[in-house]
């Protein structure tokens, strides 16, 4: 399921998966096909990279919620283009 999240000062829409059995302080989440979103649309995140899976620490995620229908649609459109 995709989520809207604030990660290290960036608003992202991504599939979020927990990594079970991690040690305290280790990366414990995977963000798949992350897109940075703003009023103008969505762009792949991180910029300048073709990576589609980012391993991060959940402590760097400060807000986690459901994205609006508009940003969900933008996410799936951008994800489809990256999978081609």
- Number of helices, where a helix is a run of at least 4 consecutive DSSP H or I residues: 1
Task: Let me know the number of strands.
Answer: 6
Strand content: over 45%
Helix content: 10-25%
Ranges where pLDDT stays below 50 over 5 or more residues in a row are none
Task: Describe this structure as you would to a colleague.
This protein is an alpha+beta fold. The protein has a single domain (2-83), classed as Roll (SH3 type barrels). The chain contains one helix and six strands, in the order ββββββα. The protein has one helix spanning 69-83, and strands at 2-7, 10-18, 29-38, 41-44, 53-56, 61-65. Strands 1, 2, 3, 4, 5 and 6 form a six-stranded antiparallel beta sheet that branches. β3 (29-38) and β4 (41-44) form a beta hairpin. The chain is globular and about 35 Å long.
Brief sketch in words of this structure:
The protein is of the alpha+beta class.
Keyphrases for this structure?
SH3 type barrels; globular; 84 residues; alpha+beta; single chain; 6-stranded antiparallel sheet
SSE layout and pairing:
Elements: E1 2-7, E2 10-18, E3 29-38, E4 41-44, E5 53-56, E6 61-65, H1 69-83
Antiparallel strand pairs: 1-2, 1-6, 2-3, 3-4, 3-5
């Amino acid at each position: 399921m995709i989520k809207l999240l604030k990660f290290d000062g960036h608003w992202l829409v991504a599939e979020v998966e927990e990594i079970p059995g991690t040690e305290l302080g280790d990366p414990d989440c995977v963000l798949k096909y992350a897109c940075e979103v703003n009023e103008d649309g969505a762009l792949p995140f991180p910029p300048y990279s073709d990576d589609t899976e980012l391993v991060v620490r959940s402590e760097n995620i400060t807000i986690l919620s459901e994205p609006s229908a508009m940003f969900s649609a933008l996410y799936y459109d951008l994800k489809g283009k990256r999978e081609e």
